[in-house]
Amino acid sequence: MSDCIFCKIIKGEIPCHKVYEDDSVIAFLDIHPVSYGHTLVVPKSHYADFLNTPPEVIADLMAVVQKIAPAILEATKNEAFNIGINTGKLAGQVIFHTHIHIMPRSVNDGLTMWGENPKVVKDFAVLVKQIKDKII
Question: Which of 32, 71, 126, 129 has a Cα at 20 to 30 A from 110?
Answer without folding.
Answer: 71
